[in-house]
Specification:
Layout (H helix, E strand, L loop, with lengths): L1 H15 L5 E5 L17 E3 L4 H10 L6 E5 L17 E3 L3 H7 L8 H17 L5 H8 L2 H9 L2 H10 L1 H10 L3 H12 L9 H15 L7 E2 L5 E2 L8 E3 L2 E5 L7 E4 L6 E5 L5 E2 L6 E2 L6 H4 L16 E5 L3 E2 L3 E9 L8 E5 L2 E2 L2 E2 L4 E5 L5 E6 L11 E8 L5 E9 L5
Helix pairs in contact: 4-6, 7-8
Length: 410
C-alpha cells in the first residue's frame, strides 16, 4: 500500500504537465530506503557517488526524460542542485506525515505516538505486499507494532540467551537491535546497548530474570486477548495451560510431541496466556513462559556498611563496695552489625565521680569492665549517682541508670 501510494503521488505530479519531469526526493533519515528496490514503476535515480554527478546527469539527460532523484541528505546540504529547485517537485515529507495524508490515525497519547513514529522505517520494510489493514493494525497499538517487528518477545529473548552473538547480529542486520534493547529495559528493567558485549548482556539478563520472574506472584489475572480459543481442537485433555491430543492441527502456540507416543502432541500457550476452559482464567505456575524455562545463575556481591551494635549495660542499683564489675551486652539488630566503642561514667550531681571507662563491645560477645572508685571521690552513703553509657565516637547516650551509694570511702 505504501509503495503504491508513493508511486501514485509521483505520477500525479508528472501528469499535471508535460514539462514537469523532475522530482527531488530528500530523505536525510532514510525513512523510505527499504521501499526503493520495490518502486519498479517509478523512474528512480538513486544517489550514488556525489551530488556533482547527480547534477551532471540531470543536465545531460534526454529532453522530457522523467526522474525521481532520491537523495538521502537534507535539502539545505544540496546547494549544488539549487538550479533545479524551482523547476522540480521537492519531496521531503516525513513518513509520519505521508501516512497521515493517506488517512491513517496515530494514538492520541503523544509519547506512544512518538515511539510508533520511531518504528515507521522498519514497519515500512515489513509493509511490502500488504494493504491498509497492515498499517491500521500496527499504528493503533504500540505493542502490536513491536510484535510485528520482533515477533514474540519471549521467543526473541530465549534465542538471545541461547545464542547471544548470532541473535544480536540478526537484529542489527534488520536494524532492530535498538528496539530489542528498549523492550528489554521496559519489560525487565535491564539497561543495555548495542555496544555492550552480547554474552555479558545475556548473563546479566539471566541473573535479572530471577528478580522479575513469576515466582513472586501466585496468580496473574488474565486479559481477554491472553485467552486462546481452542474449542475446535480434538483434545483428549484440556487444561488452562496445556492441551493434549492426536492430530491437533496447526497452531501459533508452542507445540511439542508427547514423549513415548507416536501421534500425541501437546500445546502450551505463550507467555502467561491461558486456553479457554471452564472456570476463572488465572495463570498458576508450571507453563512454558519464559520465567518457567530459564534457570538463572545469580551471583550476589553485597557491600553493606553495618551500623554499630547496640549496647545494654547491667549496672548495679546499689554500690556497696569500692571495687565491682559491670557487664556490657551487645544488642544485635542485623548480621551486619559492627563493633562499637563505648564509654561508661559515674556522676554525682552532674560532676564526675571517677574517670570514664572505655571498651569495645563486639557483636555476640558480652564485655566486662572492672570499676575502682578512687579515694577522695566524695561518695558518701545515701548519695544518688547516675551511670551514663555513651558512644565513644559520637557521644550518643546509649543508656542512663540511677544508683544509690552505700559506701563511705572516707
Amino acid at each position: 500500500m505504501l509503495r503504491e501510494a508513493l508511486a501514485d503521488h509521483f505520477q500525479s505530479y508528472f501528469d499535471r504537465a508535460k514539462d514537469q519531469d523532475t522530482i527531488l526526493w530528500f530523505d536525510p533519515d532514510e525513512e523510505y530506503v527499504a521501499l526503493l528496490d520495490h518502486l519498479t514503476d517509478v523512474p528512480l535515480w538513486r544517489y550514488e557517488g556525489t551530488l556533482l554527478q547527480v547534477r551532471y546527469r540531470l543536465i545531460e539527460r534526454a529532453p522530457g526524460e522523467r526522474a525521481v532523484v532520491y537523495v538521502p541528505i537534507r535539502q539545505d546540504d544540496a546547494e549544488i542542485l539549487r538550479p533545479f529547485f524551482a523547476t522540480s517537485l521537492i519531496f521531503r515529507e516525513r513518513l509520519y506525515r505521508f501516512l497521515r495524508r493517506q488517512g491513517f490515525d496515530f494514538p492520541e497519547d503523544p509519547q506512544v505516538a512518538h515511539e510508533i513514529r520511531e518504528l515507521l522505517p522498519r514497519l515500512a520494510a515489513r509493509s511490502i505486499g500488504k494493504g491498509r489493514a497492515f498499517w491500521e493494525y500496527n499504528l493503533a497499538n504500540l505493542e502490536r507494532a513491536r510484535e510485528t517487528l520482533l515477533g514474540n518477545f519471549d521467543d526473541a529473548l530465549l534465542r538471545f540467551l541461547a545464542q547471544a552473538q548470532v541473535t544480536l547480529a540478526e537484529l542489527k542486520g534488520e536494524k532492530l537491535d535498538g528496539l530489542f534493547f528498549a523492550q528489554l529495559e521496559s519489560a525487565y528493567g535491564l539497561s543495555a546497548t548495542t555496544e555492550d558485549e552480547p554474552d555479558e548482556v545475556a548473563r546479566r539478563l539471566a541473573a535479572q530474570l530471577i528478580l522479575t520472574c513469576a515466582y513472586t506472584q501466585a496468580e496473574v489475572n488474565l486479559r481477554e486477548h491472553e485467552k486462546v480459543s481452542v474449542r475446535t481442537a480434538p483434545a483428549l485433555a484440556r487444561k488452562s495451560r496445556c492441551l493434549v491430543g492426536p492430530d491437533l492441527g496447526k497452531t501459533e502456540q508452542l507445540r511439542v510431541p508427547v514423549s513415548g507416543s507416536q501421534d500425541l502432541v501437546a500445546w502450551f500457550p505463550r507467555g502467561v496466556g491461558s486456553f479457554r476452559t471452564p472456570g476463572p482464567y488465572n495463570y498458576v505456575h508450571g507453563g512454558l513462559s519464559l520465567q518457567e524455562l530459564v534457570v538463572p545463575h545469580l551471583t550476589v556481591i553485597q557491600q553493606v556498611v553495618g551500623r554499630p551494635v547496640g549496647v545494654r549495660a547491667r549496672l548495679p542499683a546499689v554500690i556497696g563496695t569500692a571495687q565491682f564489675r559491670v557487664t556490657l551486652e551487645p544488642m544485635a539488630t542485623s548480621i551486619f552489625d559492627q563493633p562499637r566503642q563505648v564509654t561508661l561514667g559515674l556522676e554525682k550531681a552532674g560532676s564526675s565521680v571517677m574517670p570514664p571507662l572505655s571498651c569495645v563491645v563486639t557483636p555476640g560477645t558480652p564485655s566486662t569492665l572492672d570499676v575502682f572508685l578512687p579515694m577522695g571521690c566524695a561518695l558518701e552513703p545515701g548519695d544518688q549517682v547516675r551511670w551514663p553509657l555513651s558512644d565513644a565516637v559520637t557521644d550518643e547516650v546509649l543508656a542512663e541508670q540511677e544508683a544509690i551509694s552505700e559506701v563511705d570511702l572516707w
